[in-house]
TrEMBL record:
Protein's name in the database: Rab-GAP TBC domain-containing protein
Recorded GO MF terms: GTPase activator activity; small GTPase binding
InterPro entries in the cross-refs: Rab-GAP-TBC_dom (IPR000195), Rab-GAP_TBC_sf (IPR035969), Rab_GAP_TBC_domain (IPR050302)
Residue numbers spanned by region Disordered: 1-32
Organism: Phanerochaete carnosa (strain HHB-10118-sp) (White-rot fungus)
């Protein structure tokens, strides 16, 4: 009997006449197919030219802004450094801060903006490191926590090569800071949370470990971050990787309250995205923790994160949510997939079509997940500036008072 052979690829006919038409339609004549292929090549060439033009314009804007920041150094030293709290009283100084802190002053300004609400002494880091060394010598430092710290460090800003395990120049400082953070929290029964290595690394890039440790401890004690870093769900599963990838398992009351606040802000400011997410049953728990816990360092380019941090440390928790809304605004044209799985892949930065386009265009990627969507500093700030029309701090305050009355 004749045995049907399995197809091993497109037929010769398909190779010639079926390149520009779906298989369920009749094939085109070869001349029409060639003409359409030529049209497609022209369109792609124009698209690449337009994209290159856009990149050059963004690059010019970025260089112009960086030049303005350096030129503003005199104003910073004369008007902000002597009394940095004047930025809250003078809109012009606040606007200057929003443009970005000069790199020479970033360490000082970050320390001032975060403050020291925990009243930590200058030798706090040294004392915690001593406790770490004693625990390591006695074999009482939990090995699962050490393994998790090493795993977190290995994925921290890999494009910079400064924190590479065993050979990066800042590797040991980062490990010491993370172990000290674990020891400092152990008195409260709290453990390590994956993602804090990226925050500690960003701080180390701007200041020494000892003052950086004080900044790290005080920053992560702000209520919103404390809720995510100190919840029972975070402690219960030291690996918590599954929760970090998809639907977050964080279920403590404070975290749920912040999810409701974000949902309300999203519904008010971006109703189309809100209703699309509701239709696909995607809650903030599916994406918000992966942004907030590493403070956007997993998903956004380094330069964009540095500028976000400048404002976040000044404005507080409300800017965490404003920046998250800005990210959704940049992604909005891509957020209307009919399939829930595809939508979740896009939010995780794993959309295969976007990856292929980035690969085809030979785009330089530094490791930030949303670079494949052309999310950069200038594009994000366009959306954040556009939010001035509807964002109100009073709305944030009202929602916090409603959802977290004990705060």
């Amino acid at each position: 009997m004749h045995r049907a052979s399995r197809s091993v690829g497109p037929s010769m006919l398909d190779k010639v006449v079926n390149r520009t038409r779906p298989t369920y339609l009749p094939p085109k004549p070869r001349e029409e197919d060639d003409r359409h292929m030529a049209d497609w090549e022209i369109m792609m060439k124009r698209s690449r030219a337009a994209e290159e033009k856009r990149r050059k314009a963004l690059q010019e804007r970025r260089l112009t802004r960086e030049s303005q920041i350096e030129e503003s150094l005199v104003h910073w030293q004369r008007e902000i450094l002597p009394n940095w709290r004047m930025v809250y009283k003078k809109p012009a100084l606040r606007k200057l801060w929003w443009k970005g802190i000069p790199s020479k002053l970033r360490a000082t300004m970050w320390q001032n903006a975060v403050g020291n609400g925990l009243a930590m002494s200058n030798d706090a880091f040294k004392r915690c490191v001593s406790r770490v060394n004693r625990a390591l010598s006695a074999g009482s430092f939990p090995k699962p926590v050490l393994d998790l710290i090493e795993e977190d460090i290995a994925s921290t800003l890999p494009s910079l090569h400064l924190f590479a395990p065993e050979r990066g120049p800042l590797y040991q400082d980062l490990k010491d800071m993370l172990c000290a953070w674990v020891v400092a929290r152990s008195d409260e029964g709290l453990g390590y949370v994956k993602g804090v290595a990226k925050i500690a690394a960003m701080i180390l890039l701007n200041m020494a470990p000892s003052p950086g440790f004080i900044v790290l401890r005080n920053l992560l004690e702000r209520h919103c971050l404390r809720s995510f870093y100190g919840s029972e769900a975070c402690r219960a599963d030291v690996s918590w990787s599954a929760a970090f990838r998809l639907e977050s398992m964080l279920t403590c009351p404070q975290v749920e309250a912040y999810y409701r606040i974000f949902d309300t802000l999203l519904a008010d400011g971006m109703p189309k995205i809100y209703f699309n997410f509701k239709q696909h049953q995607i809650s903030p728990a599916a994406y918000l923790p992966t942004w907030l816990i590493p403070l956007f360092l997993d998903h956004l380019p380094f330069e964009a994160c540095a500028r976000l941090w400048d404002i976040l440390l000044l404005e507080g928790d409300s800017f965490l949510f404003r920046a998250s809304l800005g990210i959704l605004a940049v992604l909005e044209p891509r957020l209307f997939f009919p399939d829930r799985k595809e939508l979740l892949e896009l939010l995780r930065g794993e959309n295969r079509a976007a990856m292929e386009v980035a690969r085809r265009d030979a785009r330089v990627l530094t490791g930030a997940k949303y670079e494949i969507y052309n999310v950069d500093e200038e594009t994000l700030w366009e959306r954040l500036d556009a939010m001035e029309d509807w964002w109100r701090e009073s709305t944030w305050t009202r929602l916090v008072q409603r959802e977290l009355p004990d705060l």
